[in-house]
Specification:
The longest helix has 28 residues, at 56-83. The protein has helices at residues 2-20, 24-35, 40-50, 56-83, 85-89, 106-119, 134-137, 170-178, 219-234, 277-282, 299-307, 320-323, and strands at residues 124-126, 131-133, 157-159, 162-164, 183-192, 204-214, 240-247, 250-260, 265-275, 291-298. The chain has twelve helices and ten strands. By secondary structure, the chain is an alpha+beta fold. It folds into two domains: 3-87; 106-323, Bira Bifunctional Protein, Domain 2 (BirA Bifunctional Protein, domain 2, 2-Layer Sandwich), CATH 3.30.930. The structure holds 3,4-dihydroxyphenylalanine (DAH).
Length: 326
């Protein structure tokens, strides 16, 4: 009987081909070819339908046995394949996926650079509170209530006596209250001002404060210190100038500009001066015996000049496209 032969032939080619099908894709192709709706087994059933009625019972039985056998063989092969799928389908020589690396925020990079420059000339790093009382943020720094200098810094009040510090100069007072001279510290941290937000000012920014108090410090030493800082930070040939200025907590006071050759203009980077004798006496120091100098600068401003960043808000938006560049 030709159907009989076909069944045998199908069995043989089924087993042969199944043993060659290894990957899930190969097995799926195999399934479609033999067991699919238009596959070889299905066409056998079509032939069976054409048989004369008297032959149907015998072949019907055989075909059903065949169908079960083939399906079981296929299921077995599939099961084995699933068990070993990782060893069959995985190419261990492929390079792994690389996880995206984070990077250090540009402000943090600049801050640690500033710290290490000052540490290299004997400054220690100090910390102070971000929420402080009016006394430490203003009064002790020779900025009494109703002093016009308070308008220089729009203040966020937490309550009538507590403010978000408007500058890191408050740390000067804490340092001097807690220890006797000599003092040689810097302090880095966040400060807050209630200013209209724009490309050049933000309600929050970072400052570095410096304070030296001893019996011998001088304006000349301050100039030398800040010149050293500018050269280390911006390069040996950076042009800088000291301009007379006013701060209630220093006398005399100055501001430092550096020449920005890209923009062809002077840019202010810090304020400084000899610590006002009133400030020294406010913390109980003998202002006949001790003198000092102080300085304060905005870290964002330093970073903006150094990296050519035009908008201060970029530091606070956490946009990966910006951060990835550092
Ligand atoms: N506190 C000042 C400000 O935020 C900056 C400053 C100027 C700090 C002169 C100082 C200084 O220590 O001596 O604008």
């Amino acid at each position: 009987m030709s159907l009989n032969k076909t069944i045998k032939g199908l069995k043989t080619s089924f087993s042969k081909e199944l043993s060659k099908s290894k990957t899930s894709q190969e097995l799926e192709n195999f399934r479609i070819k033999y067991l699919g709706r238009n596959g070889k087994l299905a066409s056998l059933f079509e032939e069976f339908n054409k048989l004369p009625a008297n032959e149907k019972p015998r072949f019907g039985k055989e075909l059903n046995i065949l169908k079960n056998q083939l399906t079981n063989l296929y299921q077995d092969a599939l099961g084995n394949n699933n068990e070993n799928s990782s060893s069959n389908d995985t190419d261990f020589s492929l390079p792994g996926y690389s996880l995206p690396n984070g990077s250090i925020h540009p402000l943090e990079q600049i801050t640690s650079e500033i710290k290490s420059i000052f540490q290299s000339i004997g400054f220690s790093v100090a910390y102070g509170p971000e929420i402080d009382d009016d006394y430490h943020n203003f009064e002790a720094l020779n900025v009494p209530k109703h002093h016009p200098a308070r308008d220089m810094q729009d203040t966020f009040f937490v309550n009538p006596n507590a403010v978000l510090r408007t500058h890191t100069s408050n740390v000067q007072i804490h340092l001097m209250e807690n220890q006797d001279p000599p003092l040689r510290h810097i302090c880095c941290g966040r400060v807050f001002r209630n200013e209209a937000v724009s490309y050049k000012s933000f309600c929050l920014f970072n400052q570095v404060e410096g304070l030296v108090v001893n019996e011998t410090s001088s304006f000349a030493e301050m100039k030398g210190t800040l010149e050293y800082f500018v050269r280390e930070m911006f390069g040996k040939d950076t042009k800088m100038r000291f301009r007379p200025s006013y701060f209630p907590f220093t006398e005399p006071s100055a501001e430092v500009d550096i020449w920005n050759s890209k923009l062809d203009q002077w840019m202010e980077i810090l304020g400084c001066g000899m610590v006002n004798p009133n400030v020294l006496s406010n913390v109980g120091y003998d202002n006949k015996k001790y003198q000092g100098f102080a300085f304060g600068m905005g870290i964002e401003r330093i970073a903006m000049i150094k990296y050519g960043i035009k908008d201060i808000r970029l530091f606070y938006q956490n946009d990966k496209r910006f951060l990835e560049q550092f």
